[in-house]
Structure formats: structure tokens, C-alpha cells
Design goal:
By secondary structure, this protein is of the alpha+beta class. It has one domain: 3-Layer(aba) Sandwich (Glutaredoxin), CATH 3.40.30. Helix content is 24%, strand content 20%. The strands form 2 sheets. The protein has a 7-stranded mixed β-sheet.
Length: 182
């Protein structure tokens, strides 16, 4: 048996974004990839969880770009496999106003195609967690932009991402989904 069978399938540009719900702290469920706040696209950021200081820094940095993204028609949500209690504790380190969802299951991580890691110790966390991933889902519910990492140090530069999405969303540019060649 090859090792490939144990790895998750990655979402490809132009593919339908899977229907995945995750809990919000207010008791509601968020459907990932379904924009809110009048936006027609959604940026879905998958982060490792409370135990990751680089995730904390990335989410806090993302807050600075939330308004610019919304002006471009892109809504933001972030999600992890943390428990409600872990997310509540993490809020002490976060200064964000976009929705944070929690409770992503291993099966949901696999459906998203994220790399999944086990904790190094109980002090790190108490559950398998998704490594960072980023998806931009367009108005047709398709993956327009995708980025996967197997560690917390490699992520898209937010200024470049926001600038690029602004350019892509400009109808004058007629910019298609890239990476569609099979």
C-alpha cells in the first residue's frame, strides 16, 4: 500500500468548496465559504490553534486588512480545531473583529485537504490540529485561491494577498481562476 492513501486530498482551484459548518462562540454555526456582511466572496483562514504564537500573530495582522478586504467584497472567517474553552482562552491574545470558529474535526480538516499534525505534548494541545491553510471562495462557491502549509512559518503575505484580491476582483481585469490546467 502506498503512503499516498493516508494523505488528505487537496482542494484544487475551481473545485467546489466543501460544505463545512463550525461553531461560533455566540452559539451559532458558520458555514465556511458562505460570505456574510454583504460580501460575495469569503476568505477562510484555517489556523493551528491557541498553542501557536505564529497563528496568533497572523490573525492579529489579518485584522488590519479586514476593512480593505470587505471593500473588495471579501468577507473573513478563521477556524481551528480548538475547543470552545481553548478559543475563549485564546481571545485574551487576539484583537480581531472577524468571526472565529472552533471545533473543526479531523474529518473536516481532511475534507479541506489541510495537513494535520499531532501535538508534540499535552502542553501543546490535546487534539490533532490542522496546519495553516487559506481559501478564497468566490460567489459560485468555488475555490478561487488556495494556499496550504505544513508548518506555521509559511503563509501568504497579507499585504500582497489583499492587493492581489483587489486586482482579481476588478472586473476590468477579467482575471480567471489560475492553476486550472490538468
Amino acid at each position: 500500500m502506498s503512503n499516498e492513501s493516508v494523505y488528505s486530498n487537496k482542494l484544487h482551484p475551481g473545485s467546489a468548496f466543501p460544505s463545512i459548518s463550525a461553531a461560533l462562540l455566540n452559539g451559532e454555526e458558520a458555514v465556511l465559504g458562505q460570505p456574510q456582511h454583504g460580501a460575495s466572496w469569503q476568505l477562510v483562514v484555517v489556523y493551528r490553534g491557541k498553542h501557536c504564537p505564529l497563528c496568533t500573530r497572523y490573525l492579529n495582522s489579518l485584522e488590519q486588512y479586514k476593512a480593505a478586504l470587505l471593500e473588495t467584497g471579501v468577507d473573513v472567517i478563521a477556524v481551528s480545531g480548538d475547543s470552545k474553552e481553548q478559543l475563549e482562552a485564546h481571545l485574551e491574545q487576539l484583537s480581531v473583529s472577524f468571526p472565529l470558529a472552533y471545533g473543526l474535526t479531523t474529518e473536516q480538516m481532511q475534507a479541506l485537504g489541510t495537513y494535520i499534525s499531532d501535538p508534540r505534548s499535552p502542553q501543546e494541545t490535546d487534539h490533532p490540529f490542522a496546519e495553516p491553510a487559506l481559501f478564497v471562495v468566490n460567489e459560485q462557491g468555488k475555490v478561487h485561491v488556495v494556499d496550504y502549509s505544513n508548518n506555521p512559518f509559511v503563509r501568504p503575505d497579507l499585504a500582497t494577498l489583499v492587493s492581489g484580491l483587489n486586482w482579481v476582483r476588478d472586473p476590468k481585469n477579467n482575471y480567471p481562476i489560475r492553476g486550472m490546467h490538468k
